[in-house]
Specification:
745 residues; mainly beta; Jelly Rolls; Immunoglobulin-like; TIM Barrel; 6-stranded parallel sheet; 49 strands; globular; binds beta-D-galactopyranose
């Protein structure tokens, strides 16, 4: 039976690859000890040159191959190595791969020294001069290098399951019918079919995730390398953004009554349809509300383990209240996608690339990337759309005819899209996906479908808006941060008001490091509604207040008039999902604002402008304090107090405190905010914060940072030893905060 062994530990690394590294005689004492996920270069937070991570680096690992693997298939898989890799085993080249964002596998059975040691060497080229996507021109994001995702070996029988594509089907009319189709690819079919006396079978089972017992679906005799299975005799609960019910389908291969292999695929039953008049999920018209996500983090770029990848999905769904994400501009970690499946977060995923289309060999690689993306990701039920164009490239009918054909050929359950920035361009895809940057604060929030798409009978989706139209830092002046938030509200509202637009993805989830041609000169694009550590800017509240689950109440101002020109209040907004908000000034009731007071009439929870402060600021008198109470179903669900600050303290959260080493090291994301005694972020507290760490772990990044806009963070990494980690966080006048973590190996 299939066994998986992770190879994330015990690697040696050098920033300079040498051919001699492939041989056992090479002296590796000068190489660094590293664990995967690994970045070829740790980087500063900002102000660094993208040349720093461009290199041809070398990785080496010794591998013991037990005697009992002999005669089986041993498959080595790299989930992600950026950007070109060559793999050698015991001095012999095994394979090469030319994409930093897709996985690759190679059968190493014939080259292994069973019962002894084996030397694995990987040459990883992270230079941006490579003639593969996304390279060739400028790119608005950094393309960090290294073996930055998991590496593992699978040991399989000669007769085994090569691939199982589960296609959960749903028909909705008066009743809801569910059935399941699968495409099962079998390895070793020749020997199975030639030895006709053998009796080979595929069996399938299903269970709801979390249940202990599988239910038998059915079986089919094996006659060819690819078998189609179809079983309809069961009723599944639907997967939806509200209740993402998952199922596990177990496929088994039997020969002469003996099980050879089994593979479990997690799936869900949902009907996702892009129609000319919008998007429908399980028959219900539904507005997609998402953000674009880059898979990058401070210091280590792409190299973060499972828990941190998953955290981003949680933040998008639970903190920002979104129902969708676009994995701009490349396929992202399966850990992130698994969490999207679990949370009910819809995903638009796409091939790597940015505006530029290269020569024929470059295009051939892009076609390969479509194939790999679809084959590797098609079992994720959260994915509703394949992006098969290079982001914002021009038309190229021949090329895009091929990318569409490949995607459709490998997956008949999902439509294709392809992000462009041009109107009425050649539409070979099923959905016209367009970056609509028309809104500049004054102009309308979005264009009409008929102004953009050449074919009104096909669906239309907005894949980006805002971003570079209004870069905003967490420490910008209040007026600017408010304008940023309001621009997001303007576009969301305009999209909500256009029934034939399927939805929209804002640019973008979090600030990100970028190339010299973009950003603010410090190699950062401040386009996020979150900062790089995933702390919220004001615009985050616009998104968070669109969901119904958790009460949201945020006031756009600190209520300090001196922050505004001419010491005027400026426009102050309430962001809330409550029924109403009561405002008090120095405990005297001023006004109760209702949902209907919002002038963003298409949103269920538009921002509400405060239009009555009862007089001017009370200079010299007792200090002025404001209290806001969010009321839902006649109950106060949230209170916000604003007044002159008296005391600074640090609010510190880790996403988890129990680090577990499963396939590799674990990392906890620690978010830090300087707040006043009422919990309001102190947006101009750009002070140093020092970290002290003790115990069985280390920090990723420096032990001293400056908060930006009163916010910052760090990452705590386990070190392969069980025990405790103590993190102390000091900042000026604020009391020291101690955070304790446990590590379990
Ligand atoms: C788009 C591009 C994104 C990002 C964004 C900034 O044109 O697709 O990658 O650069 O602009 O607003």
């Amino acid at each position: 039976m299939r066994k998986r062994i992770y190879l994330n530990d015990g690697w040696k690394f050098s920033e300079v690859y040498e051919e001699k590294m492939c041989y056992s005689t090479f002296d590796e004492s000068q190489m660094a000890d590293v664990r995967l996920p690994h970045t070829c270069k740790e980087l500063p937070f900002h102000y660094f040159d993208e040349e720093m991570y461009q290199m041809v680096s070398g990785y080496r690992k010794w591998l013991q191959a037990p005697e009992d693997w002999k005669g089986q298939r041993v498959i080595l898989t790299f989930e992600g190595a950026a950007h070109e890799s060559e793999v050698f085993l015991n001095g012999k080249k095994m394979c090469e791969h030319h994409c930093g964002y897709t996985a690759f596998s190679v059968d190493i059975s014939d080259m292994l020294n069973y019962g002894g040691k084996n030397l694995l060497t990987v040459r990883v080229d992270s230079r941006e001069s490579l003639n593969i996507p996304p390279f060739g021109f400028v790119i608005d994001y950094m393309t960090y290098g290294g073996i930055y995702r998991d590496v593992y070996i699978e040991v399989l029988n000669q007769n085994s399951l090569e691939d199982v594509f589960i296609k959960p089907r749903v028909r909705i009319d008066k009743n809801i019918d569910t059935w399941i189709e699968s495409e099962v690819t079998i390895h070793g079919i020749d020997s199975i079919v030639c030895g006709m006396e053998s009796d080979s079978l595929l069996r399938q089972w299903i269970r709801k995730k979390g249940e202990s017992e599988y239910r038998f679906l059915g079986q089919k005799a094996v006659g060819q390398a690819k078998e189609i299975l179809k079983f309809s005799d069961f009723r599944a609960e639907l997967w939806d953004v509200e209740s993402p019910v998952l199922y596990e389908v177990r496929t088994e291969l039997f020969i002469d009554g003996e099980i050879q292999d089994a593979l479990v695929v997690t799936t869900g039953f949902r009907k996702a349809e892009f129609r000319s008049d919008g998007f429908y999920l399980n028959g219900r018209k539904f507005k997609i509300r998402g953000l674009n996500r880059h898979q990058s983090y401070p210091y280590v770029g792409y190299a973060m383990p499972a828990s941190i990848q998953r955290l981003d999905a949680d933040i998008l769904k639970n903190e920002l209240g979104l129902n969708a994400v676009r994995t701009s501009h490349y396929p992202q970690s399966h850990d992130f996608l698994n969490r999207c499946d679990e949370l009910g977060l819809l995903v638009f995923t796409e091939i790597p690339g940015w505006q530029h289309i290269g020569d024929e060999s470059w295009k051939a690689q892009a076609i390969e990337n479509v194939r790999d993306m679809v084959l590797q990701y098609r079992n994720h039920i959260s994915i509703i759309l394949w992006g098969v164009r290079i982001n914002e490239s021009g038309d190229d009918d021949l090329f895009y005819g091929r990318t569409n054909k490949v995607a459709h050929g490998l997956d008949d359950t999902r439509p294709t899209g392809g992000v462009r920035a041009i109107r009425k361009s050649s539409l070979l895809e099923d959905v016209y996906t367009y970056n609509d940057f028309v809104h500049d604060g004054k102009t309308r929030g979005c264009e009409k479908k008929e102004e953009i798409t050449p074919d009104m009978s096909k669906p239309y989706l907005i894949s980006e808006y805002n971003g570079h139209m209004y870069p905003t830092k967490a420490y910008d002046c209040e007026g600017k941060r408010t304008e940023h938030a309001i621009r997001h509200a303007n576009v969301l509202d305009a999209v909500a008001g256009q029934p034939d637009i399927a939805g929209s993805f804002g640019w973008c989830m979090a600030d990100y490091n970028t190339h010299k041609d973009f950003g603010s000169g410090d190699r950062v694009c401040y386009h996020g509604v979150l900062d790089m550590f995933r702390n919220p800017k004001q615009a985050a509240a616009v998104y968070a207040s669109q969901q119904e689950k958790n009460p949201v109440l945020a006031i756009s101002s600190s209520m300090d008039i001196g922050e505004h020109p001419e010491s005027r209040w400026g426009d102050v907004y309430i962001f809330t999902n409550a029924d109403s908000v009561r405002m008090y000034k120095n405990d005297r009731f001023v006004h109760e604002y209702k949902r209907s007071d919002s002038s963003w009439c298409h949103l269920s929870h538009g921002p509400i402008l405060i239009n009555d402060f009862i007089g001017d600021w009370n200079w010299g008198g007792t200090s002025t304090g404001f209290r806001f109470e969010a009321v839902k179903n006649q109950k106060i669900v949230k209170t916000v107090m604003k007044g002159p600050m008296k005391r600074v303290s640090l609010q510190v959260w880790a996403d988890h405190y129990d680090l577990k080493e499963e396939h590799s090291y674990d990392v906890a994301a620690v978010r830090i905010r300087a707040v006043d005694e009422n919990g309001n972020i102190l947006n101009f507290y750009n002070e140093p914060v020092c970290f002290e760490i003790e115990g069985e772990g280390s920090l990723i990044g420096p032990d001293m940072i400056a908060l930006q806009g009163g916010m910052g963070g760090t990452y705590v990494k386990s070190a392969g030893i069980s025990g405790k980690i103590l993190l102390k966080i000091h900042s000026g006048q604020a009391e020291t905060v101690c955070v304790e973590f446990t590590v379990n190996i």
